[in-house]
Amino acid sequence: MAPAALVAALVLAAGAATAAQGDAARGEQIYARCAACHALAYDRVGPRHCGLIGRRAGAVAGFPYSPAMKASGIVWNVGTLDRFLAAPLRVVPGTTMTYAGVPEARERADLIAYLVRAGRSPAECGSGQ
Amino acid sequence: MSSFLAIADPQAARRLFLARSGLALSGAAVALLAGRDALAAKSGATRADDVRILNTALGAELEAIAAYQLGAESGLLQKPALGLALQFQGHHKEHADLLAKTVRQLGGKAVSAKSKYGFPVHTLKTQADVLRFAAKLEQGAVSAYLGAVPLFGNRDLSKAAASILGDEAMHWAILRNALGEDPVPIAFVS
User: Fold this and answer.
1) How do residues A2-49 score in pLDDT, each as one tens digit?
2) Which domains does chain A have, with CATH numbers?
3) Which of A11, A86, A103, B183 lies in disulfide reach of B177, CB 3.0 to 4.6 Å?
4) What residues in A contact B68, CB-CB < 8 Å?
5) B186 found inside a domain
6) Nearby residues of A115 by Cβ (< 8 Å), 6 or more positions away
7) Is B183 domain-assigned?
8) How far is CA B131 from the centre of its chain?
């Protein structure tokens, strides 16, 4: 690849990384805030997060979701998670995730990067869910 | 933390600020929760919202009680760690009792403990594993209450949540200390 094209490719890649990805290592620290209610691999007060990306909201079998979450029509991806986690009760009024949210965009990006990475990790989430 | 105003809603930020400035609570102040009149003054919608917040917190407290039970029965905890676990479990029982009572006073139905919790038992092999597991739950509980404080329609409930938050922050610090970690690593919890 010509040097100029290489630079352009790197710049594009870096741009995509900041827009969509955040820092998963920092996100793991932020995930500690969710640890009263969530785990990656098993249901607690809140549902498991393995398998989250691409899943319909309210879709973990056997988990007692609120009617509001089940009816929300959300599919979880980087964008919908970013909106929901900023203010869960504003995005899904009536949700039982009664948590004010993660107001800082940078922290949300890191947190979501962690959720994406963990979801792909065989050690954290196995091969399926 | 950058600012109290990082919280999107200014009213919520103000409530958070007020809750922070009123952290020194006596048991009697928390018992004020039981004052039916103040609670009854709130509208039905607010009351239902508050019940939802209380029930989510109650569910987490019931799980914490079960987690400490698992720890106590694991045979992995020696004195004095075993004593701490039982003492902290006792606090969680008191929190759960108060939350359940408040839910009922607000006309709601208190959630009950699950028949089975999916704790990652296979990862708990030493006393330190159990303490680290408990510390994580307590840290999470502090964050969860912090995230509930600004949501209540009734400020007395925010105050009660802040009071519980303070207790759980003490548990977290003591558990970190028992693990040989800096007990109070930060100036603000988040």
Assistant:
1) 555 544 444 444 434 444 579 999 999 999 999 999 999 999 999 999
2) 3-125 (1.10.760.10)
3) B183
4) none
5) no
6) A27, A31, A49, A52, A53, A81
7) no
8) 18
ipTM for the predicted complex comes to 0.84
Q: Is residue B60 part of a domain?
A: yes
Contact A33 B137 (CB under 8 A): no
- The dihedral through the CA atoms of B85, B90, B95, B99 has a sign that is positive
- The tens digit of pLDDT for each residue in A74-128 reads 999 999 999 999 999 999 999 999 999 999 999 999 999 999 999 999 999 986 5
pLDDT mean over B61-72: 97
CATH number of domain containing B106: 1.20.1260.10
Residue B189 lies in a domain: no
Count how many domains chain B has: 1
- Which residues does chain A have within 8 Å of residue B52's beta carbon, measured at their own beta carbons? 94, 96, 98
B49, two tokens: 């919202």
